[in-house]
């Protein structure tokens, strides 16, 4: 093995390490959000978290690109990205307020399967039989996981599924703008519009929906925890971006499932949620479907490169 190959392997290993850190950080932020259940409404927490994130990203974007960084093409598309992030965030935050963190995270892992389906429908990418097989397995897992949760929490337990649909739609929109702006601009625009929609939803909920009423201004510890989540989530997204610059998406994809392991550990040992064997079986099916799709796509890529 020559020096160039050694260097490539070292760079790739560094990329995988960055992805590992990033994916491990996401459930930690989810745990911080769940810890605020009862302290402040979910929609208000989401609005504050994204407002802080958008402000920080605006400062970074201005320092790096100046005023030109804020010039946009097709602003409606960035608005749509923000709206899907708004829907995905408010439904997921509400879900982890009312149900075990591990279950909510596991159900949201149907996201890659939905993205593959939406790519075929909206981007006219060819749908392979393996995609349909993985989809059937994934939704079987979701139904198994939802069965005990619907019985315990009612139909609000499907909130993480709504979140997964919104996030999959967001990924499709991200592909449509991927060549337009820098990573800093793309991050700012989506956080900015998500914050706008979340603030509007919080105000409307406070005025017209009693259960969404915001009782008072947030305590300092709520503000601190929202800032912490904004910082860690933004940092994790940048780490993922850096990881994709060092290794392939196919190498990174399977690492995403470390989130479920960490979320399960936090759910059990921090929040004291019991482990439901039926829900675990559904979660394993979702993981299996994701790994099946990843393996098939990696194999197809290898054949094309050959």
Summarize, please.
This protein is an all-alpha fold. The protein is built from 12 helices and no strands.
Structure description:
It is a single chain. The chain has 306 residues and is mostly helical. Helices cover 78% and strands 0% of the residues. The chain is built from twelve helices and no strands. The chain has helices spanning 3-34, 42-65, 75-98, 101-108, 111-122, 129-153, 159-177, 183-208, 220-244, 249-252, 258-269, 277-305. Helix 2 (42-65) runs antiparallel to helix 3 (75-98), helix 4 runs antiparallel to helix 11 (258-269) and helix 6 packs antiparallel against helix 12. 41% of the residues are buried.
Structural class: mainly alpha
The H/E string reads HHHHHHHHHHHH
How is the quaternary structure best described?
A: single chain
Question: Major sheet, described briefly?
Answer: none
The count of β-strands is 0
Shape: globular
What gyration radius follows from the Cα positions, in whole Å? 20 Å
Which regions have little confidence, pLDDT < 50, spanning 5+ residues? none
Distance between the termini: 21 Å
Which whole number gives the mean pLDDT? 82
Helix coverage percent: over 70%
By DSSP (H or I, 4+ residues per run), the number of helices equals: 12
Range of strand content? under 5%
């Amino acid at each position: 093995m020559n020096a160039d190959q050694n260097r490539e392997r070292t760079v790739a290993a560094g990329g995988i390490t960055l992805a590992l850190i990033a994916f491990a950080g996401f459930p930690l932020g989810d745990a911080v959000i769940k810890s605020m259940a009862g302290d402040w409404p979910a929609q208000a927490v989401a609005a504050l978290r994204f407002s802080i994130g958008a402000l920080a990203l605006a400062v970074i974007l201005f320092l790096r690109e100046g005023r030109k960084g804020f010039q946009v093409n097709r602003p409606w598309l960035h608005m749509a990205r923000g709206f899907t992030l708004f829907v995905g965030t408010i439904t997921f935050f509400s879900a982890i307020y009312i149900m075990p963190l591990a279950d909510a995270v596991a159900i949201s892992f149907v996201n890659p399967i939905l993205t593959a389906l939406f790519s075929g429908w909206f981007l006219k990418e060819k749908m392979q039989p393996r995609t349909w097989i993985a989809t059937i397995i994934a939704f079987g897992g979701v139904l198994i996981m939802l069965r005990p949760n619907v019985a315990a929490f009612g139909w609000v337990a499907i909130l993480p599924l709504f979140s997964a649909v919104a996030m999959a739609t967001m990924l499709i929109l991200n592909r449509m703008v991927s060549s337009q702006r820098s990573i800093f601009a793309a991050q700012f625009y989506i956080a900015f519009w998500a914050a706008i929609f979340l603030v509007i939803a919080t105000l409307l909920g406070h005025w017209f929906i009693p259960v969404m009423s915001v009782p008072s201004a947030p305590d300092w510890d709520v503000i601190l925890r929202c800032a912490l989540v904004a910082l860690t989530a933004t940092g994790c997204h940048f780490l993922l971006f850096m990881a994709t610059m060092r290794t392939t998406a196919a190498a990174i994809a399977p690492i995403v499932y470390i989130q479920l392991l960490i979320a399960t550990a936090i759910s059990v040992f921090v929040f004291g949620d019991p482990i439901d064997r039926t829900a675990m079986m559904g979660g394993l099916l979702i993981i299996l479907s994701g790994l099946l799709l990843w393996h098939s796509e990696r194999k197809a890529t290898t054949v094309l490169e050959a």
